[in-house]
Design brief:
By secondary structure, the chain is an alpha/beta fold. The chain has two domains: 2-71 and 176-238, no CATH class; 74-168, no CATH class. It has seven helices and six strands, in the order E-H-E-H-E-H-H-H-H-E-E-H-E. Strands 1-6-2-3-4-5 form a six-stranded parallel sheet, sandwiched between helices. Helix 3 packs parallel to helix 5 (110-128).
Length: 240
């Protein structure tokens, strides 16, 4: 997009927030990456879409462009957590007994604190070869900190899971703007997008894995931005 004269701000870059609410997550992104006036569009991939909407509402941006935009969900959080656990343990693992639908839907930081402690324990058990007793786990225990030996290894996983949790805990504010959702050939459609003044869905021929690198995608985005007057000056992008 820079090659076409757009000033791009990549909001989802380090350091990433660890907030459990989409509103707080968006506020933290904007505090870390100040933006210019007259932002033309916010772009977002997959489950970053609800976070992008929170950003757009705060900067009065009239247009959201999604790539396979979809809401996060308890099932998505559970599946990603389980895959990460399997990766850290080096094999299949059972979901911890403390995991529940109620905890995932609860709008508090209890889930992220429990996830952080569970990942730390799983990694340390895998490294030492000693299983840990799940009965020792408490949601009131302090989470791992930067000085914890396991923390650097699980930090990226925690960023990703916090991203999904915050996306799930979005209020989808009605900010008066429009959504254009570019979807790959097998992506389910979310139409209308909650909170949008209007929703336009464009079905593409590419699959999900290749859509961001597909030439058709760039052409569509340029057409979408070019169709709005006056000419664009600034563009923000979020992916995740």
């Amino acid at each position: 997009m820079e090659e076409h004269g757009y000033d791009v701000r990549y909001l989802l870059s380090q350091p990433l927030p660890r907030h459990h609410l989409a509103a707080d997550y968006a506020e933290a992104l904007l505090a870390t990456h100040p933006v210019l006036d007259d932002v033309r569009a916010v772009l977002a991939f997959c489950m970053a879409a609800p976070l992008a909407q929170e950003v757009a509402a705060r900067i009065s941006c009239p247009l959201l462009v999604f790539f396979d935009g979809e809401p996060s969900s308890p099932e998505a959080i559970r599946c990603e957590f389980r895959q990460i656990q399997r990766s850290l343990a080096g094999g299949p693992v059972a979901m911890p007994s403390w995991w529940s639908q109620e905890l995932v839907t609860q709008r508090s930081d209890a889930l992220l604190r429990a996830i952080e402690d569970e990942l730390r324990r799983t990694l340390l058990a895998a490294v030492s070869g000693d299983p840990f007793d799940e009965d020792d786990l408490s949601l009131d225990e302090p989470a791992a900190g930067p000085d914890d030996a396991a923390f650097p290894l699980i930090s990226a996983y925690l960023d990703w899971l916090a991203h999904l949790v915050a996306s799930y805990h979005s209020d989808y504010p009605a900010w008066g703007g429009d959504v254009v959702n570019l979807v790959s050939r097998q992506q389910p459609v979310v139409d209308p997008w909650p909170g949008a003044a209007s929703t336009r869905t464009v079905r593409m021929q590419s699959d999900r894995a290749s859509m961001l690198a597909h030439g058709e995608t760039r052409g569509l985005v340029l057409d979408i931005l070019g169709a709005r007057k006056p000419p664009a000056h600034h563009l923000m992008e979020g992916t995740g």
